[in-house]
Amino acid sequence: MPKRSAGLLLYRVTDGVVEVLIGHPGGPFWARKDEGAWSIPKGEYDEGEDPWTVARREFEEELGKPPPDGPRIEFAPVKQPSGKIITAFAVRGDLDVEGTFSNTFTMEWPKGSGQIKEFPEIDRVGWFSAAVARSKLLKGQRILMDRLIEALADGELAESRSR
User: Fold this and answer.
1) Cis status, amide bond into 120, omega within 30 of 0
2) Exposure pattern of 66-91 as b/e (b: 16+ CB <10 Å)?
């Protein structure tokens, strides 16, 4: 059975532009990577767990702040190149990224050194326009941007442009 993750894509509409909040993975493998390295806040879950509950929990663990309440959009699950399945939800809301902090993980670094070091799961977060975020996101998550824009095209995005 493939691994499963649930995640939350927080978005806002500013002057008719859709912006999303995404995070850059911490640790030495990602330190010098930017384009194609960012991710929505997400985490793995077990059979029987509610993906919406997991998505909210993981958002708080990876950003140190609870996700805002707001209307949600549930996307169809997305299979990643690794085979992992992501169930993602988009929520309209705003979040001040000042003071965000992530939970951590440990790993041997440098590899083979015997030294165990601790790293944040997410080392920085930021708001980006949908177009910029699409290029920053991991390849397998870019479809989430497409689905968000599609879901908003006839709904609130069109409404916000007419104001």
Assistant:
1) no
2) ebeeeebbebeebeeeeeebbbbbbb
Where do runs of H (alpha helix) occur along 5-104? 51-63
The CA distances from residue 145 to 4, 11, 109, 124, 129, in Å, are: 19, 10, 34, 20, 10
List per-residue pLDDT tens for the chain, 163 residues long.
899 999 999 999 999 999 999 999 999 999 999 999 999 999 999 999 999 999 999 999 999 999 999 889 999 999 999 999 999 999 999 999 999 999 999 999 999 999 999 999 999 999 999 999 999 999 999 999 999 999 998 675 444 443 3
Retrieve residue 130's tokens.
Answer: 């949908």
Token pair of 65, please? 């702040």
